[in-house]
Design brief:
Layout: E1 10-14, E2 20-24, E3 34-37, E4 42-48, E5 52-57, E6 60-65, H1 68-81
Antiparallel strand pairs: 1-6, 2-3, 4-5, 5-6
Amino acid sequence: MIDGKMEHAFSIEMKPKKHVKHISLSDEPYEHVLFEGALGELEELSMVKSAVLEVRGANGILRIDLSGDELRKMLFQKKEAQ
């Protein structure tokens, strides 16, 4: 938690590195980090231990520290705004 805000960790696991399109890291303190790739055809969307959203594709897996409650809240807020 930073400045009273919840941080959400993430990981990206790519099976063959040929599906990684671009990685950009900067030595400058305020520059962004960019990771681009292709997860491929989506195979599964699941919650791991009720705390991690996992998006599984043919070429890799994206995981983000996000509870089911937080996900539902964000989806509900998005619907209300439309």
